[in-house]
């Protein structure tokens, strides 16, 4: 007997929730067009989706950079070497363009 009453009460709760949901949807549908509730909800949903995607991308970028450094063995010295090579290349291009006598190394 108790099981039957529990089933009925759970069914009644589900029906009430369903009715509440239908009422909210009807209120949106029958509301004034100037309130633009549907548009605002869609915009909010897209914004939330975009924020979640950006947060996910940030985590992916940081993990990918860490993996690349671990795989290739980059460290601070390698970065300095690359900066020095870039500087030398720029100086060589200037020398080629202006003339070798006028460029300061």
Could you explain how this protein is built, in words?
84% of the residues lie in helices and 0% in strands. The chain folds into 3 domains: 1-30; 36-74; 75-105. It is mostly helical. The protein is elongated and about 95 Å long.
Summarize it:
The chain has helices at 2-30, 37-72, 76-98.
Strand content: under 5%
DSSP E strands, number = 0
Number of H/I helices: 3
Percent range for helical residues?
over 70%
Specify the structural class.
Answer: mainly alpha
The succession of helices and strands, N to C, reads HHH
What overall geometry do the principal axes of the alpha carbons give? elongated
Span of the ends, CA to CA: 96 Å
- Average pLDDT taken over every residue: 80
Residue runs with pLDDT of under 50 for 5 or more positions = none
Rg, alpha carbons:
32 Å
How many structural domains? 3
Largest sheet: none
């Amino acid at each position: 007997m108790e099981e039957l009453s529990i089933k009925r009460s759970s069914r009644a709760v589900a029906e009430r929730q369903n009715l509440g949901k239908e009422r909210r949807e009807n209120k949106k549908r029958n509301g004034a067009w100037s309130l633009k509730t549907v548009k605002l909800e869609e915009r909010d949903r897209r914004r939330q989706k975009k924020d979640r995607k950006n947060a996910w991308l940030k985590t992916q970028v940081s993990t990918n950079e860490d993996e690349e450094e671990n795989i290739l063995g980059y460290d601070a010295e390698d970065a300095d070497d690359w900066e020095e090579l870039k500087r030398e290349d720029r100086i060589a291009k200037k020398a080629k363009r202006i003339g070798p006598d006028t460029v300061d190394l």
